[in-house]
Amino acid sequence: MVATGQAESRAQLARLSGLAASSVSLRVEQLIEAGLFTEEGAGASRGGRRPRRLRLAREAGVFLVADLGAHHARLAAVDLSGTPRAVGDLAVDISVGPEAILTAVIDGLRALTGEHGLHDVPVRGLAIGVPGPVDPATGQVVSPSRMPGWNDFPVREFAAAQAGLPVLVENDANLMAVGEHRASWPDLDNIMVIKLGSGIGCGVIVDGRLHRGRGAAGDISHVRIHSEATVDCSCGHPDCLEAHASGAALAASLAAQGITADSPAEIVDLVTDGVPQATAAVRHAGQLIGDVLTALVNFFNPDALVIGGSLSNAEPLVATIRGAIYQRCLPLATRNLEISTSRSGRDASILGAGHLLLDQSDTWIDHTLTR
């Protein structure tokens, strides 16, 4: 509550939490002693003496965040309110396997904090986003596509042992959904966030909270689509959406036509440069994605559909998705629906990770108080 600005005094904490003032005061004293809180100045008075204002201590700590992709990792240190203090990129190849990648990422995060003068600031927790389904109970990646060696690997346990920190492991599209919602759409309760990169992911916000289901909620990548040409997906089934419309699928299609694009960003560059084969490919992908989203929009009836990831910068792709949804969905489902590209851009997942770590603050506070 203090980190997000909902409360700035002990009295406000007691009123908002429903706890006794004595209990709140005891907890606040513990947090001050632990170096997390500071009291300074004077807050607004509601009658009587003005209360001292509670703030997070400037050096209360940071969370570390790693958002893993197929060929890169976005690294960050965020303060305890979820605001990035340092951000960097690390080239990785997710197919190398979990031990090597996680070790490199943790080393990269340590280097990042040192480069930005944060080496003396306590690290309170670590969040890792992965491009595959995550069992929320165990922190394991379950049957991912294009992630050899990661299936059932204990990511949370391994990373916690390497970093000596409480660790949150989450699907990258889920992190993006939380980041977009908290940073850009806080007044909307129901949102779908689509991540279009090397793969395809979807995060779902229901009644203002991330909906995980049993870990596979929002996984639209393996929805079967209708296509003239059959393509086998990495999951073993034919004609999954990801096998036809993901960045990896588009790159393979273009390669068959003699056009090289090693990443989704390079596909976007080809579209921007007006290469007709690339434009046709993303329009076809947009139609397939739009057909799948049509059913989901009718079913879920969200307030907003946000399209993010590297491929969201391809304007013809987004326009085709938008057109398919407006053409095929029920008028009531689209009457007030906002379809938009990401407002938080590359840092959406980082912002989401910071907020989820803050939501689980009991874990890292207990870790801090017992060290």
TrEMBL record:
Domain of life: Bacteria
Cited SUPFAM superfamilies: Actin-like ATPase domain, Winged helix' DNA-binding domain
Pfam families documented for this protein: ROK
InterPro entries: ATPase_NBD, ROK, WH-like_DNA-bd_sf, WH_DNA-bd_sf
PANTHER family noted in UniProt: GLUCOKINASE (PTHR18964:SF173), ROK (REPRESSOR, ORF, KINASE) FAMILY (PTHR18964)
Family to which the UniProt record says this protein belongs: Belongs to the ROK (NagC/XylR) family.
Protein name from the UniProt record: ROK family protein
Annotated organism of origin: Actinomadura logoneensis
